[in-house]
Write a structure and sequence with these properties.
Radius of gyration: 19 Å
Strand content: 25-35%
Number of domains: 1
Structural class: alpha+beta
Order of helices and strands: HHEEEEHEHHEEEHEEE
Helix content: 10-25%
CATH class: Mainly Beta
CATH architecture: Roll
CATH superfamily: Electron Transport, Fmn-binding Protein, Chain A
Number of helices: 6
CATH topology: Pnp Oxidase, Chain A
Strand order of the largest sheet: 2-1-5-8-9-4-3
Largest sheet: 7 strands, antiparallel
Shape: globular
Distance between the termini: 33 Å
Length: 189
Amino acid sequence: MTPPRRSRTARKAKRPLPLSQVYRHLETGPVVLLTTSKRGKANVMTLSWHTMLEFEPPLVGCVVSGNNFSFDALAATKECVINIPTARLAKRVVQVGNSSGRTVDKFKTFRLTPRPASAVAAPLVAECYANLECRVADSRMVNRYNFFILEVVKAWIDRSVKLPHTLHHFGRGVFRVAGRTLTPPSRMK
């Protein structure tokens, strides 16, 4: 009996992956703009370390570094908005991520339009195609991991954006753009 032929890909030897690059292969969610507001001062930061935790109610886990200006506002107010931009905003998303709300009014500097939310004090970013108003549902992992569990309490979508081309962080200033839809068979008939 002849052994099955291995594909060209299977014949290539795998090599070690530096542990510092593991996230590049697991990070699947879009880069978002997280907005907060504390004592009337709104801020926006770029965030890519987040994950869905539950469908209903929608729960999102996210890591916000304790060094970020937004961390203090989120920890104090226990609310924020997750704003989902498309690739059209890539330059501004990077600029927001490379600056600090301690020294810069990012909305003004990067021409982003704050709009009032309905359930939280943090603003929506008008230029983003989707906005998720959130409240902190669980903060038990904040002290150890800077990990907040957020409950989405109100969601907004621009229905004119049929197939959003979202940004996905690949590390070291490199992004991928998602937007192609596949519909492979998902269940056996």
